[in-house]
Design goal:
Strand content of chain A: 15-25%
Structural class of chain A: alpha+beta
Oligomer: homodimer
Radius of gyration of chain A: 25 Å
Largest interface: A-B, 78 and 78 residues
């Protein structure tokens, strides 16, 4: 069983802010989509990660690095250490969630292996500093040394918050001390090409109380955007070094780097009560959501530099929308929710969870999307379960990638997902995400227990039963998702109550046995894009509850997605499996028309001869699960 | 003056085929757009190329490589030799065109420098094979050794065809012999990651008569697509190694590589009279034009791998459409025109010349587009004339790039452009491109001279006066561009004559003094895209004559191109400078509408409140010439 320390088992634990996160000890998923994904994660994905990283020698690299001599045959890219750390973090949350002694034992052994590669002075990286290797800190732009250190710190924080002891923390503190020594106020004035150390140092500060770690995180945040990184083909924006964090107005460059940095900046802002910095990130986030975000919540339009593009450049085909950016987006939105209490941040968490995070893993938990395109034009290729993909996007879910960051990233989020569902403040409890779960926490007024039961997102009814209540009045708050605003109903013990704009709030003694029911409108609905998004002009998509829907044409269904158009007026009917039924026209081919053989002509395409067909749209997260297929999220209107 | 050998000064000189190219000795531009660009090329661009390559040490690399010891400080990428060779080719054509003794002397000196780096056995590359360098042929996928050899051969062919002597040819033959020795039928069964050697070997065969070079080119063509190159993140299609050339149905992968390979395959097919291979390339080309080509003729949709994408993926924003792909497209289409006589290939040459090749160089001939986007969303940055760009696309024309292939590629095409205007066969002369020029050639029936005078493309009238005629009947053929089919008029000495589908043909004695006038319809016209091109759905563009038009909003004109829409029914009026005047609506902003701050909503955008404005569309090739600007080719319809 988790030790009493597990009371701190939350993926982020700010010292200030509007809301207090509930821990993995206080919230337990019991059923439904997320519980299922979490089970698969614990039963299959963690094993998949362990066996692949062992097979590829990424764990052995630590043992080799601890031995005398040159680890000449170290395999993998320069950041493979970080995959071991993210894996360790996932295992730590899984241990906290399940209390499994086997997992704890595994983590202890892994700590010993990792720790064996640590130098006397605390430095720890398997690819730098030994004979035959590049010197330590010799390639801050691309070497990923501080990035790897950051993930080590996060693993140690997860391990410590799980109440599992100090083994990882001792390694992490020595790493962090060495980083502070080298890059402190009087040290090397530099930053890492890939942000990550910032949020990690703040979390380590939160866990250890060491003020130096927070100061170093603040230094790294303030130092970025001042041209300390070398010029690069992709420009300084690629690593957010084009502009100081507090002066920027929108996220740009490599999406994951941008989001990790923003998360770190929020952490720094919250701990130092720097409202200006917090407001700057809020503005950047708002502008990013408003102009640079896919309808799935996916971020990063470009394959080349895995980056945000200019405003409104959101092509559905070849959308990159990296899975890691989805995870990082959840981290950022969650931090902003805790800091501000604004329910819109929980809307974004929901969008990302359903449409990016849940989309990535295959049903068996052993294959993953790295990129999450919104339009698959050629049939996906079914992966070789033993094969490693050299490419990071396109095609079907793959068992492994040369750069496999997304896999342990999804794993650490799923293992800690209970921690993202609910919060508390002095007055009561706030439910942000809907899934069957049990909640129990201590308020100033006393202990509150809740039983949440729902078939969400397939159905919009969320039933909350109070199982334990303090003697005093308290408040239960339920988020009204943006897609159901004005269309949500609330009853308390069968009596209808008013629903606020973005929350349904119940206040009173609410004794044990009280039943609160929130009814959300999960009828499928059409969604239209801003006219400035050129890539999807003249198209619509459908959503149902938190799910974006798509048209998935499994090979053999004989539906050519290049020729489909929908009549919006004909409407959407709910279909089984959380989808919607729609009538589409299958148009004739329409090109080339002019004499030179190019697909452009002096007259609009002549589309007489369309056939009608009825098809089912399915939740985007379900696409590609029934074999090779083509897919599109955005559908041209007829 | 050019020697008598200059009679062979043609950029491609097939031994078979439907049409015979006219040489730089037989066609001379006298006036107009192309003559002007050619002058700027000769006066500024060649000097620009010389001074930059000298400053960067790319010429010095040959001298250094010839000295004993290790050229440790060799600068630039592994393919800089090829830039010197393309520059030499450009100078050779310029020498052939102008007869300049200074240019010939410069070429002799350059040959001595280049030749000094040649090894005893003929091998020649400055980045491989010496102490401290990678071994020869150790990285066929990315080392560009055969690619560089190919450009050397092409420079030598140009030099020899210009009648300037054997200096380059002697070097090239030794290089080619060494390549044949190593990679011949019994040699290493491999190909170069970047095709180019194929077409070069055939041209060297055409110039020297050596059959071995043709056989080696055929071997390289047949060997590709058989998995001899290593796996790569971008897939085997990146270097066309996914499928044998004669089995492929469409061009794919890196656009320039694909087009150079296709040109080489046509050369092999023509010389070996392999109609199956020729037909295969024709099919690939037809499919590529029909599904994977921008309205500008630009090819290659992706920045990441500079590659063709799937069918119909032709985003206007971030279109790559590399200038080199435009040059390579001209090379391929020209070869197909010579082989088949089909006028549609000349249509494609025209589209590429006006909308890619002429777009790239700045007015001063000292700045260039590497990529040719069809939508510039953020204002271009004006380049630093001394600055080298690390990025290859986006922004304004740049003086230099870390990879500067496009600059000498444009230079060699412009210097030899006279050679792409007209052809002959046993019956007469064919005019394919319209520009003021003088033409004189020998037919079996006798000598023909033509004076072509036109203000094309600003006006559609082309006046051809016969200045010399054989005693016997002969045929003058004029291409009717695809955009003027059914709308072209022809008079011979003032008497109207019938015009064919894609050619206007005049047959008879046509004695000196005969005046043939072709009138083409250069009224601006709307152009609609195939409905399968998602990226420009609901948009139109305009064309006028061979020019694609665009809306160029020079900074300060206060026109937000994200909010512009056109009413197609309102029509297009001709405007000065070859453009068109059009009425646009400037729409209000339209987003975000739903509560979560993303740019998607349950209702279509509400566009009431649009203002009307009259604006000029300008030829795409002129965009970005009046300062920083935003631009779009495709305009949403109102």
């Amino acid at each position: 069983m988790p030790s009493p320390h597990a009371r701190t088992a939350a993926p982020a634990l700010p010292g200030h802010g509007r809301l207090r996160p509930l821990t993995l000890d206080e919230v337990h998923l019991t059923d439904g989509l997320w519980h299922h994904l979490q089970q698969v994660n614990g039963e299959a994905t963690l094993d998949h990660l362990r066996s692949w990283t062992e097979r590829l020698g990424w764990v052995q690299a630590f043992t080799d690095a601890s031995a005398a001599g040159t680890p000449a045959d170290r395999r993998g890219r320069e950041f493979t250490d970080s995959e071991i750390y993210k894996y360790a973090e996932a295992v730590a949350w899984e241990a906290a969630r399940t209390g499994s002694p086997a997992l704890l034992e595994h983590l202890e052994k892994l700590a010993a292996t990792v720790g064996s590669a640590q130098a006397e002075d605390g430095y720890l990286h398997t690819a730098f500093g030994r004979p035959g290797q590049p010197e330590r800190w010799s390639d801050l732009a691309f070497g990923h040394e501080l990035y790897c250190a950051g993930h080590l710190l996060q693993a140690a924080v997860a391990h410590a918050r799980s109440g599992a002891g100090e083994a990882w923390l001792q390694i992490a503190r020595r790493v962090a001390d060495q980083v502070c020594d080298r890059f402190g106020p009087d040290g090397v004035q530099a930053v890492c090409g890939h942000p990550e150390i910032e949020t990690a140092l703040v979390e380590l500060h939160r866990t250890t109380g060491e003020p130096r770690y927070l100061q170093q995180a603040a230094l790294f945040v303030e130092r970025r955007g001042r041209g300390t990184l070398p010029p690069h083909e992709f420009g300084a924006a690629y690593f957010l070094d084009d502009e100081p964090v507090r002066e920027a107005e929108v996220l740009r460059g490599h999406a994951v780097r941008a989001l990790y940095l923003a998360a770190g900046a929020v952490d720094v802002a919250v701990e130092t009560e720097d409202t200006e910095l917090l407001q700057s990130v809020l503005t950047q986030w708002q502008n990013t959501l408003a102009r640079r975000t896919y309808v799935t919540g996916g971020m990063g339009s470009r394959h080349q530099d895995e980056a945000f593009s200019d405003d409104w450049v959101l092509p559905a085909d070849r959308a990159y929308a990296e899975t890691c950016a989805g995870v990082a987006g959840v981290m950022l939105a969650w931090r902003l929710l805790l800091a501000t209490g604004d329910a819109r941040h929980a809307d974004v968490v929901e969008r990302l969870l359903y449409n990016v995070v849940a989309t990535s893993p295959g049903d068996d938990g052993r294959s993953f999307f790295y990129a999450n395109t919104l339009h698959q034009r050629t049939p996906t290729e079914l992966p070789d379960p033993e094969g490693e993909s050299l490419a990071f996007g396109g095609g079907g879910r793959q068992p492994w990638f040369e750069v496999s960051c997304c896999l342990p990233n999804v794993a650490r989020l799923l293992a800690s997902l209970d921690g993202y569902l609910a919060t508390a403040d002095d007055d009561g409890v706030q439910l942000h995400q809907y899934a069957s779960c049990d909640v129990a926490t201590e308020l100033p007024a006393g202990r509150v227990g809740l039983q949440v039961r729902t078939r969400y997102p397939d159905e919009g009814s969320v039933v909350v039963t109070v199982t334990e209540a303090p003697g005093w009045d308290w408040t239960l708050s339920l988020r009204v998702p943006s897609w159901s605003r004005g269309r949500a109903r609330l009853t308390v013990d069968g009596v209808e109550q008013a629903v606020g704009h973005d929350t349904a709030v119940v206040h009173g003694s609410l004794p044990a046995g009280t039943t609160v029911v929130l009814e959300l409108d999960t009828a499928p609905r059409w969604t239209f894009p801003d006219t400035r998004i050129d890539a999807v002009r003249g198209c619509v998509t459908a959503q149902r509850g938190p799910d974006v829907l798509c048209l998935d044409a499994t090979t053999g269904t004989d539906l050519d997605l290049d020729r489909v158009a929908v009549d919006v007026a004909a409407g959407l009917a709910p279909a089984d499996g959380g989808g919607a039924q729609v009538t589409v026209q299958v148009r004739p081919d329409a090109g080339p028309r002019d004499g030179d053989g190019l697909p452009y002509g002096e007259a609009p395409a002549h589309l007489v001869g369309s056939e009608q067909r009825t098809v089912d749209l399915v939740p985007y997260r379900r696409w590609g699960r029934t074999g090779s297929s083509t897919m599109r999220v955005w559908l041209p209107t007829a």
